[in-house]
Amino acid sequence: MKQPRQLKIFEEEDFVRYENIHKGKRVAEVLRGYEAFVEKHKGKKTTDDCYTPPAIYDAVVGWCKEQGMIDDSTKIIRPFFPDEDYKLWDYPDGCVVIDNPPFSIYSEIVRFFIARGIRFMLFGPQLTLKVLGADVCYLPISANITYENGAHINTGFVTNMIEGVRLWTAPSLHRAIKKASPPKTLMLKNTYPSNLVTCATIGKIATREVDFKLMATDCEEVQQVQALAAVKKSLFGGGWLLSTSAAAERAAAERAAAERAAAERAAAERAAGTCVQLSEQELEIIKRLDEKRGC
């Protein structure tokens, strides 16, 4: 009897042979591979995905009102949303844009609003806040803002609503944002009087190579003090009570250590940086500015 012919719907090359890529691997190895895959495709935090906390935004709007830049009747526009083009928004006469734009196109956005006469107060990247040739006021207040996605961004502001001012530290704006920010978690450290020392506190003097000796006749060993015991804390590692003269010597050694630390930091910064000298052309610009002010 003639065998029935099998109908071929797909060609051989349409099939991919299955191979178990995990064959011979332990479960832990497979899981690690999966975790690496997930991490690779997980969305990364960028400055374009930093949604402003409402309390921070309200503080900025409130500051603008205090400065007379806007009032309660001003129409505020927030045109920056994912996958939307801010250029297509309707900007009615008298409106103000107060928003946190994508930092990757920050300069383009500033120029767009200036060219169309649209008033704005924008969040911006502190270190690259300046837009070449833009007639605006920069507010490099160095506000450390934690945005909704958890990113910590050093933030400044730029506006075209403060005429004649090119750069302003705006301490009141910095205070307003700081007040609106959630409190930071602080490490709780004990503060000791100068008559009480521990090995940990003296270590701060030693690391700066400041010579300090505590004579045995000027101190008495203690394992705890009543103030710490009252709040159920301990004097970690124990310490010593110092005579008044020894406490004064200890304080002098700490001041010397602090001064040396500051000098070392300054020297390190100078060594790592570049000492900038102004050219003759740049000095001529300063001379011209001085003449404007009658200097």
Question: How is this structure best summarized?
Answer:
The protein is α/β, with parallel strands linked by helices.
Write the layout of secondary structure elements.
Elements: H1 27-40, H2 54-66, E1 76-77, E2 96-99, H3 106-115, E3 119-125, E4 137-146, E5 152-159, H4 171-180, E6 196-197, H5 199-206, E7 219-222, H6 226-230, E8 239-242, H7 244-272, H8 280-292
Strand order within the widest sheet? 1-2-3-5-4
CATH architecture of the largest domain: 3-Layer(aba) Sandwich
Low-confidence stretches: 40-47
Strand content: 5-15%
What structural class do you assign from the helix and strand content? alpha/beta
- Please give the radius of gyration in angstroms: 32 Å
Just give the CATH class of the largest domain.
Alpha Beta
For the termini, the CA-CA separation is: 116 Å
Indicate how many domains the architecture comprises. Answer: 2
Number of strands: 8
- Note the total helix count: 8
Quaternary class: single chain
For the biggest sheet, the summary is: 5 strands, mixed
The average pLDDT score comes to: 86
Q: Quick one: overall form?
A: elongated
Name the helicity range.
25-40%
Topology as a string of helices (H) and strands (E): HHEEHEEEHEHEHEHH
Protein traits:
Rossmann fold, elongated, alpha/beta, 2 domains, 295 residues, 35% helix, five-stranded mixed beta sheet
